[in-house]
Amino acid sequence: MGTDAGDGYEFVVVANRLPVDEVTDGDGPHRWERSPGGLVSALQPVVRQMRGAWVGWTGSAGEAPDPFDIDGMHLRPVPLSAEDVDLYYEGQSNATIWPLFHDLVEQPTHRRDWRRAYEAVNRRFARAAAEVAAPNATVWVHDYQLLLVPAMLRELRPDVRIGFFLHIPFPPVELFMQLPRRRELLQGLLGADLVGFQGALAAQNFLRLTRLLLELGPKDDRVEVDGRTVVARAFPISIDVAEVDQLAADPAVQQRARQLRTELGGDRRLLLGVDRLDYTKGIEQRLEAHHDLLADGEISNDDVVLVQVATPSRQRIAQYQQLRERVERAVGRTNGEFGDVGRAPVHYLFQSFGRAELVALYLAADVMLVTPLRDGMNLVAKEFVAARRDEQGALVLSEFTGAAAELDDAFLINAHDTDDIKRGILEALNAESRDLTARMHQMREQIRAYDIDYWARDFLEVLGVSGAHEAEQAETAQP
Ligand code: ADP
Ligand code: F6P
């Protein structure tokens, strides 16, 4: 599937964010940095391989830069004004849909002006995609910020094939029913030819809603709408296993992992958390379990250290600001109660890291803590497994992540129950090396078989872009 920039692109991804964020330090020149989150980690290798175009926002309010090419991708920035950021991104996307789709972990707010902005911005994204797509192109729309785009795009460009993939959970019917203008949201998604979800239950919820709210007659994994067939199915997303594997094999990364361990206190066992600072990730519950283990004397500051990396995220939203305050208070409390001079039980890093440093952390860890209260998939869990070529290290994993369905050899826990998180951590710390190897071996087999390439090929083949991926791979392989 090659591209012809003159007539547009044959493969177009549309997502709220571009894979890079525009960063300006003071008056200095601007630069581009990889943008946060699992969506970008997963999709970047696919778009690069397909030499496609990516329609999205730069992460900064104001005018959008002109389209440009980077890293084998054509990027088409969509402008968001400060008001759009406020109402569409921070409001309707992240303070209404995000909490509601994550089982009301926080209370959603419903506002008419947010919904209006959401619709207007979705239309802008649809127009940009319509401009960039070649005749009969494949356009793949992503995530909860753009639920209305498939129908809007179909209106503008009935010739293109439209796929949609939801990276986060799709809520149970009773929760979806709470959304104002819920029919429009469903109709928006039904503009696609294929709607993909992280799990089978999500696809079923969606199809049931088409019956309940739109009186359609879904059958098996499909539903007829206006003489078209829309398929809804699960496609659990994965990671670029080869990229992580390559970094994990790099002697410099391995050296950095050894250095991290030495700096953290030689033979202390290392517990690790790596997340966006988001209330869905169960960071507070994890910190509480760790605190209680220290308080109960089950672990001690001499033997165990916790490193929690938290990427700054959505920092202007009140619920995220409050979360940050609570997390930082909890870290301070544990360090105050159980720390020694020069030796803290928790190292909290409110920072973003490069890929190599993240992989060094994964290699250095004895126990990886992935404890979301709800998560569509969780790529960090899969990255940790991909990094552990030594088949050592334990994964404590919340049952409420999509990843738990595939990585069931992890130490599975109920993240809503602090005692169960404590149990999982202790089991992981006390497990025999043979047991860890057996578990890690199984999990590595799983992610190697279903990596990001498999995921994309699977989705695109069902969408009817059969053979395109292989053709592209062959093309890429040529000198
Ligand atoms: P989400 O999509 O909700 O952010 P995921 O776990 O699915 O959660 O994906 C997170 C992605 O962001 C992973 O690829 C992970 O490596 C990356 N990431 C998480 N924390 C950091 C960090 N502190 N620095 C750099 N990348 C990070
Ligand atoms: O994967 C979920 C997701 O919300 C993506 O859609 C998003 O790009 C990423 O996490 C990071 O969030 P944000 O773009 O709001 O920083």
Automatic annotation (TrEMBL):
GO MF terms, alphabetically ordered: alpha,alpha-trehalose-phosphate synthase (UDP-forming) activity
Pfam family, one: Glyco_transf_20
One GO term of the biological process aspect: trehalose biosynthetic process
Annotated InterPro entries: Glyco_trans_20
Extent of the signal sequence: none
Gene3D superfamilies: Glycogen Phosphorylase B
PANTHER family the UniProt entry points to: BCDNA.GH08860 (PTHR10788:SF106), TREHALOSE-6-PHOSPHATE SYNTHASE (PTHR10788)
Similarity comment: family membership: Belongs to the glycosyltransferase 20 family.
The protein's name in its UniProt record: Trehalose 6-phosphate synthase
Species of the source: Actinoplanes xinjiangensis
